[in-house]
Amino acid sequence: MRDEPSACYVYCVVPAAQVPPLDDLAGVDPGLPVGSLTAGELCAVTSRVRLAEFGEDALRRNLEDLAWVERTARAHDAVLARALSAGAVVPLRLCTIFGDADHVRAMLERERERLHDALERLRGRSEWSVKARADLRRPAPAESGGAAPEQTPGRAFFARKQGDRELRERAAARATAAAQEIHDGLRAEAVDALLLPPQDPALSGRSGTTLLNGAYLVERAREPAFTAAVAQLAARHRDGGVEVDVSGPWAPYNFVATEPQRDERRAAAPAQPA
Amino acid sequence: MSGIVPSSSSGPAPVSSALTGPSDGAANLADVLERVLDKGIVIVGDIRVNLLDIELLTIKLRLVIAGVDTARRIGITWWEHDPWLTGEDDDRGALADRVRRLERRLEAGSSSEGDDA
To answer: Which pLDDT tens digit goes with each residue over A209-263?
Structure first.
């Protein structure tokens, strides 16, 4: 790492007794290796970062650069995926940075209780993402071009719009019920569940309207049962035009928050067709 | 945007192609950003990024996540120039066509309505 001024980036906290192998991982600052710092029973997974890239001024600039954010986010997540595979992990938010190793150890001691509780709660569990989509713009092939001949083009147009809207609303109601059923079915297989705001097709690369963007905390031993439930629900709703995506296991990003915070989030993010 | 590499060190991969259909890096990126940016435990470090800046970024991303059309409606188009959000040219072209068609129809419609009155 040459002699450039640097700081200590913290990815996550794991039990000191369960530190995964880290030496083959790439850190968020390319070329700087990932390691760990221990204080008592807690261990922070860290890497050095150059202040030229991760200092306050540099971060202010870089966080507006979406290519930089993507690169950093992927590197951050890759380290967490490794930590998850070793047992328990508490994810830290992107770009949590300390001046040096002593400050990281001091943080572990200061936050010991909160981190310990989170590790206990998340031990042996992973997060799964399940999304359901449907194309709600498509359901009216029979209706199009059905305008009465005596209508003016303007009236025919608005009548058609009205009919289209009613069909879309019916399709949306059906799709929303399907999404609710999928969510309820998966919640029964999970320790905890959350609804996240819908993702836009431009980012997700998928067409259609997001009906469900759910996060599920699943016992690792129950993962096969969970994915089987996803497959079953997906099959049941496929004929209704609902597409289901599943990805995982993720580090439990969405489940480190305390119960009251999550209740607020639940209330704030109902699954609604966009 | 690179494709998803199905290994434990590069983020979760879809468990079944039958369930997920054709996936690309974009789908995974949305999932990664959604989690990494504003989830995870918040611990204040020594290097404090101006929170306003982070919020600004998060807001931008939320706009993208919540709805491109919504953003367009209120005149925000910054993402159209961001390399990791491009590749939607077909959609943009289709949307522009749709807008033009609707405008023509509305013109035709309002002139007919005017004739009736």
So the answer is: 778 889 999 999 999 999 999 999 999 999 888 999 999 999 999 999 755 555 5
Give the span between the Cα atoms of A104 and A100, in whole angstroms.
7
Nearest to A22 by CA among A106, A84, A99: A84
A-B CB pairs within 8 A amount to 224
CB contact under 8 A, A256 and B40: yes
**Displacement of CA A75 from its chain's centroid (Å):** 15
For residue B85, the chain A residues in CB contact (below 8 A) are 66, 202-203
Q: How many structural domains comprise chain A?
A: 2
Domain shared by A141 and A253, yes or no: yes
Query: Under 8 Å CB-to-CB from A131, ≥6 apart: which residues?
Result: A199, A204, A206, A210, A212, A213, A214, A244, A245, A246
Looking at the structure, do residues A214 and A105 belong to the same domain, yes or no?
no
Same domain, A23 and A154: no
Residue A273 lies in a domain: no
The whole-angstrom distance between A106's CA and the closest CA on chain B is 11
